[in-house]
Fold:
Amino acid sequence: MADQSSIAIYLTSMTIGGAERVALNLSTGLSDYGYDVDIVLVEATGDLLEEIPEEVSVIDLDASRVATSFLPLRRYLKSREPEILYSMMTEPNLIAIAAHQLTRTDTRLVISEHNMLSHSVSSIKDRAITLAAWATYPFADHAVAVSKGVQSELLAKTRLEEGSTSLIYNPVRVEYIREKASEPVNHEWFVDDSIDVVLAGGRHEPQKGFDTLLEAFAQIERDNTRLVIFGRGPKTEELKCQAANLGICDRIHFAGFVENPYSYMATADVFVLSSEHEGFGLVLIEAMACGCPVVSTNCESGPAEILDEGKYGLLTTVGNSALMSKAISETIDNPIRSDVLKRRAEKFDVHNSLKEYVDMFIKTRRVRNSPRHRDK
Structure:
C-alpha cells in the first residue's frame, strides 16, 4: 500500500485556467508540507506543466477525453494506491467516482467543485452530467466547494449532506506572486506614466464576458486610457472583430499567452473581471496581491466574497457595460490603496488554505466508507 501521505490530484490538463492554477498551487504547497504528490492528468498538456516542481510527479493518462480516462485512472489507482484521490471539476469528479467505486483499494476520494452546477446546463450533455452529479456525488468520501455560493448549490442540487462538504477557498501563493510581480513588463503602455492601463485576462470564452468589457471600454471618454487583455481561446478572433467594430483597435492590445501576468497586474491601474459566472474568481486575489485595484461583476459566485461586498473593489451588474465603464473610471480616479489590497489578499494565502486541506484530508482518511454512506 502507498505511503499514508500520498495524494493524487486528478484533472483534465494543465492548460492555463483557474482550476489548473489551483492544482499547481495545491500540489506545490502539499509537496512543501512533505506529502508525496502526483498530478494525474487526462492528457499531460498545457503551459502550466513547466511550472510544476520536480518533487511533484506528473502522471499522463494519455486519454483523448475525460470519459476515456476511466480505465487508465482505474489502473493508476490499483498500482499506486494513493491515500487520497482529489478530483477537480464536475466531469472528472464523475469519472473519479466510477473508478474509485470499481477499484478495491483503501484510497479515499475527495471531489471538488469550482463552478456553479446551474451554469452548466446549456446542452443535453451538460444536463446529463448535472443529473449524474446528483446521483453519484454522495459516493465520494468528501466534497470541497471553493466558495459559499458553490457550497450552497452543491447542497441544493445534489444529495450531498452538509457534514460531507467543506468550504475551502482556493490557495493563492501570495509571496510567489509578489516576487514575480517585481519583474519588468515589456510593453510601452505600462511604463508610460501618462497612460492609464486597464487589464483583464483569462480564457477567451463567453463565460468571461470580454464582449461586455470591450463595450464598457469603448464608453470611457479618456484619450490616455488603454486596455490590455491577456489569454486566448475560441472567442479571440471574434473579440478582435468586435474591437474593430467599436473603433478601439488603437487603444487595445490582445497580449495572448503571458508567461508572467503578475508583472502586468503590478503596473496596471485597474484589473477587471467581467465574467458572467465564476466558481471563485482567483484572478481577483492575484491582482490584489500585486496591489492592483480591481473591478468585478457581481456574478455567481466568489467575487462578492473576495471583495467583501464591494469594500475592496467595485461590483457591477453582469452584462451592464455602462455600469462597468463607470466603475473602471471611478477606480482609476480613486483607487483603493495598494497596501490595503495586499493585506486583503493575504487572507487567501496558500498557507491558510493548505492547513484546511490537510485537516480535511486527515479527517477523511480516518473514516472508511460506511455501508450507510455507500447506500445513499
About this structure: The two ends are 28 Å apart (CA to CA). Residues 317 and 336 are 20 Å apart (CA to CA). Residues 369-376 have pLDDT under 50 and may be disordered.
